[in-house]
From TrEMBL:
Name of the protein described by the UniProt record: ABC transporter domain-containing protein
Native species: Catenulispora yoronensis
Location in the cell: Cell membrane
Membrane topology label: Peripheral membrane protein
Family: Belongs to the ABC transporter superfamily.
Membrane-crossing residue ranges in chain numbering: none
Gene3D superfamilies: P-loop containing nucleotide triphosphate hydrolases
Residue span(s) of domain ABC transporter: 23-249
PANTHER family: ABC TRANSPORTER ATP-BINDING PROTEIN, ABC TRANSPORTER ATP-BINDING PROTEIN NATA
Amino acid sequence: MRFYRGARSTVRGLLPKGSDTVLEALDLAKRYGPVTALDGFSLKAVPGEIVGLVGHNGAGKTTFVEIVTALTRPDGGSVTIDGKAPGKAKGLVGVAPQHLGLYPSITVREHLELFGRLAGLRKVALAAAIEELGVALRLGEIMDRRTGALSGGQQRRTQAATALINNPPLLLLDEPTAGADQETRQAMLDVVKQRAGEGAAVVYTTHYLPELTELQATIAVIRAGRVIARGTYEELVDGLPGEVHACFEDAEDVRISTNDPTKTLIELLATTKQPITSVEVRNADLDDLYRSLAVGRDT
Ligand SMILES: Nc1ncnc2c1ncn2[C@@H]1O[C@H](COP(=O)(O)OP(=O)(O)OP(=O)(O)O)[C@@H](O)[C@H]1O
């Protein structure tokens, strides 16, 4: 146990000291020929914050992740990681790309050793980090199997572990639970919460909105290459209408979209002459947020 604690403090030494902002993107622009992928994209993330990026297919989420990881250059704007340009932020960023990119002929352990060494971990710290992730991401039983022979969910967990191996101050997780079963999803969410609790800033893209509630993420809504809204779940959902759904004995059901479902129900009960067989009152939720995005979809 002492060995484990000592190694952890070495790993944690990578977190930024006295830094308010881990990630700062300002007015990013990126075009691919006629396609505008990013257009005035700005985003900040501070230590301990989980920022959930949501938006439709093609909104620009992956392009942003690729710029932060120096896989592609922006046409305009700037991005810094703990004050450094993307190409100079070695060891500061852990990235789990949307598409799986593992070496099929080497084992899970060999992946973790490789990525850990590339990030500067050695011996005791590396062994401790592998042991910790083996438990956190339930990799123990598959640690010495070749990744080419693993299931999709097992490969997802392995890829996430390569991003987390050196406990970097910034984590970019691009749809880390895509296609994952409940066990993989929960393991991923638990480890993300744990790392944020330890001070990492996390950018987490997903189409599964309930994950962001569980992560208590601040949500950044992306549309057509820019952040169009940012806030907590409550802040974003509060302004959206809920619904009253009433069923009548001798008439068609009615669904009323309303900012005050309780008041609307009282008015309905006071004015309707038809016998009502059932009513459902629903406040706005994240699905409504997503639907409201679809209404204004222009990509
Ligand atoms: N290498 C590329 N060449 C040409 N167009 C590209 C390239 N990469 C992205 N695009 C285009 O840029 C836009 C933004 O794509 P991006 O992958 O960033 O969206 P996304 O929000 O991550 O989508 P998804 O939710 O489907 O992953 C899309 O119109 C896409 O077709």
